[in-house]
Design brief:
nine-stranded antiparallel β-sheet; 41 strands; disordered C terminus; about 25% helix; D-amino Acid Aminotransferase, Chain A, domain 1; 5 domains; Dna Ligase, domain 1; Rossmann fold; alpha+beta; 18 helices; single chain
Length: about 675
Amino acid sequence: MRVVTRHITKLLVANRGEIALRVMRTARAMGIATVAVHSEPDRTEPFVAAADEAVALGGATPAESYLRTDAILAAASATGADAVHPGYGFLAENAAFAAACAEAGLIFVGPPPAVMEAMGSKLAARRLMTAAGVPVVPGADVSGLSDDDALLRAAEGIGFPVLVKASAGGGGKGMRVVAEPDGLVEAVASARREAASAFGDDTVFLERYIAAPRHVEVQIFGDSHGQVVSLSERECSIQRRHQKIIEEAPSPAVDPDLRARLCAAAVDAGRAAGYVGAGTVEFLLLADTGEFFFLEVNARLQVEHPVTEMVTGLDLVRLQLLVAEGHPLPSEVSTPVLSGHAIEARLYAEDPEADFLPAPGQLRRFQVETGAGLRVESGVGDDSVVSPNYDPMLAKVIAWAPTRAEAGRRLAAALAGARIHGVTTNRDLLVRVLRHPEFAAGATDTHFLERHSPAELGRPLAGDEAERLHAAAAALAAQAERRAGAPVLATLPSGWRNNPSQLHTTAYQGRAGRLEVGYRLGRDAHLAVNGADLGATVESAAPDEVVLGHGGIRRCFSVHRAGAVAYVDSPLGASTLREEPRFPRAEDEKAPGSLLAPMPGTVVRVTVEAGDAVAAGDLLVVLEAMKMEHRVTSPAAGTVAEVRVKAGQTVDGDEVLVVVTGEETTDVRGPGSPRDG
């Protein structure tokens, strides 16, 4: 078959954030102009500014913007774009969107619609793999089943526990583990709603839940000339909510023989489907036996593609664009040479101490080290807003080194030293995982975060003693800022007297509670926290940096103030401290027993009415935010006094949803109240 080569001159990126920036970077290097499309909340984000041209799609949610095929095609027409890159998520694996692009005369940077139908749908891919002889996990198609008894029979035919999975997407969206029959119907309904919201398709299926496997995937590439190759494997076993958070290449569990078998199976899968473009064949691996089972095919570029790039030296986006233009894969792709080891960590705005509850808000500062062996793929910057409408990933931080141990140390150090102010993140959890003996030994599996408490791993690296030092640094930086702005005698320390007087005090709220810092500078300098001598000496104090000596160790404390909040970073970790006003005002009172929204979102369901009796743990409200469902439950037994919301209503964070009265109820947010910073 003769392949027609078409030249891409202008590329529209039908996505947002870090992947949009990533695609634009390669396009620019290839001399291709770029077009960004964006929702209303994203209009000031870095990816919009980075594009040569930008078109507003309108709306705030994905359904109102990034899932609108008509608006995206209109943007391509208006700007004269001749190709569309879908990134990942949204419409990346939507065959109808790919077909619509082709019908509009646009080059779609991805597999043809027919291949996407076969490989992008997990159900279709399972059927194809079975026909090709690739081992698959036992499962059942329940897309046409609405009868509860029929669902139960299908699950029992597989055997509990079962996994409910969305057919149209990935990233853990629309996925539920069901251990017992009683939870099946609600899990299927919830997974369908989440899948419809995230992917525009509510099709789900059941699969046997395999306990504690490793998750290993193979990067494949195909071209229009019939060539399909593999670019080796990646390990993706560290996951939360079935979504990967740490990936690496190559896998520490794969030896050359197993690598050859995995890659051969992945290539066979690609050839069976006539695969074109970048794709990933995912497997569950039983490391002790070397058995593996087909899991799914992602018919797109993966979030974790940078680790493959860093060990092969290949630019996967460049390869995508070359294949989309009709060129054969370059010769160096056929025999990739692996060099060193690369590890990627996904940095999310979420709270590991609160079951990974997303934590939207405004970033006040975002700085992560880059340099030799370090790469940061991010769609945010200082003052970016983390919207509740989208996935909460802030960045991917990737480290490369000649050895796995060195790559892990390098990545952990870069994350620990990052300046991330304004929202709660999983940074400290990532650092502890990378430094964990089990990870160092390469002995991880998909149940790592079930064996090791995310709340414990995710607690701040800065403990109570560090927070006291951080509070002292914040107070000293604040006084230095005030003195620098003083109209007279600016060189004198705050409250200077000929004779020493009482300590000056500043109070903060931190994780450990109230921290009252007392300080006196000058000849008789003194530092105390909550009345106890801190045992620290002040070597220097500037508005943004304080140097303290403590226990014979000199440390530099970086201080960043944003309004009443001080963000302090040091070798001990990071702290967020909210300064108490000198003359506090009474806060607005909420009714006792108020259940508050943990974040901005949309009410999906309300399960109670005023007057209902509820037990501790009973479901009250289901809230959708950041493409996920969040359950708000009763903290104790009581009676529903008020229901202040209804299905479909949009709510703000801390808005009262339901009021439950009872002896043990208190004013609380929904489960997992996010912390600031």
